[in-house]
Amino acid sequence: MSKGTAMASKQTANKPSETGEHAERLSNLVSNVPADIDHETGLKLFRDMTLGRRFEDKCAEMYYRGKMFGFVHLYNGQEAVSSGVIGAMKLKHDWFCSTYRDHVHALSAGVPAREVMSELFGKETGCSKGRGGSMHLFSKEHHLLGGYAFIGEGIPVALGAAFTSRYKRDALGDSKSDSVTAAFFGDGTCNNGQFFECLNMAQLWKLPILFVVENNKWAIGMAHDRATSDPEIWRKADAFGMKGEEVDGMDVLSVRGAAERAIKRARAGEGPTLLECLTYRYRGHSLADPDELRAEQEKEFWAKRDPLKTLEKDLLEKQLVNIEELREIEKQIDEEVKDAVEFALESKEPDPTELTKYIWAD
């Protein structure tokens, strides 16, 4: 590539996105009916989102201090998706399948912060016993089916979990088998074969699964609108006769509302849903990414839609909580994250003589 071509390519990548188009799409969502919540649920959502945000901020600090190694992809800005979907499901009953941006999904699924942080430090006390690291969090106890380093890998795994739920009920006669699976993935994955193949199978067999697209507009450094012929991903459900819905992924109550509707259909045997959540990551693709491709104008637009601030505003306006309760939760979360770091630092490294342990089933 010539120097002139390279410069032109960089200029194209740095061209400000049309924030007006973002605003228009968010204001013209096909369905955006928020969930009705009470005081307890409001505090639970605020706590979960605050934990996700402050946990990730601490991960960045530890990484830049040289305490954490490898590829680390943070979730800042997308908390409403994890909390909105997983918070509407039954923990330790339903199943979850993540991506390499999996820390917050694990926390929302109930994996203790100590176990997640320990895994990021490569310690034996981590949820994957120090063998997985940032991109491969797993917890059988919490029904977290793993994070995956390559895009699209988790979707077939999630499909298998959903098939198991249906098979136990229909073929084995287990009337209590009504678990639902949520498969999380990004906009870039929606151009891959696994995505289309699994949508087809899920609809064909009416499997209880939510395909949750975390559309943060960027697949590493590729802008979403430049990579797909139809940027409205939820419409791709039509090709399979599947229910598709788009939602404001920066509004946890809207995400929760859409998730509740999809989960109800899934448990009733009405099949899968493709849920596109319009969101935005506030950091680069990974902590090694200088984040030079995205325009400042675009970042500023999404910063004004911070999901934590949106939820706090909603809770206070609806008089579901008071400000003192929220500030107290923040203090508790800071202590929890601090404790997780101290626990991880003090934990033992995996024993080198057990290198092959956990590779095969006992």
Explain the overall architecture:
The chain is of the alpha/beta class and 362 residues long. The chain has one domain (59-344): Thiamin diphosphate (ThDP)-binding fold, Pyr/PP domains (Rossmann fold, 3-Layer(aba) Sandwich), CATH 3.40.50. The chain contains 12 helices and 7 strands.
Describe, in short, the structure shown.
This protein is α/β, with parallel strands linked by helices and 362 residues long. 43% of the residues lie in helices and 9% in strands.
How many strands, what sense, and barrel or not for the largest sheet?
5 strands, parallel
Query: How much helicity do the residues have?
Result: 40-55%
Tally of helical runs: 12
In the CATH scheme, what's the topology name?
A: Rossmann fold
CATH architecture: 3-Layer(aba) Sandwich
Secondary structure layout plus pairing:
Layout: H1 3-14, H2 19-27, H3 39-64, H4 79-86, E1 95-97, H5 103-108, H6 113-120, H7 154-170, E2 181-186, H8 193-204, E3 209-215, E4 218-219, E5 222-223, E6 243-248, H9 252-267, E7 273-278, H10 296-303, H11 307-317, H12 323-346
Helix pairs in contact: 3-4, 3-11, 3-12, 4-9, 6-12, 7-8
List keywords for this structure.
Rossmann fold; 5-stranded parallel β-sheet; disordered N terminus; two-stranded antiparallel ribbon; alpha/beta; 362 residues; single chain
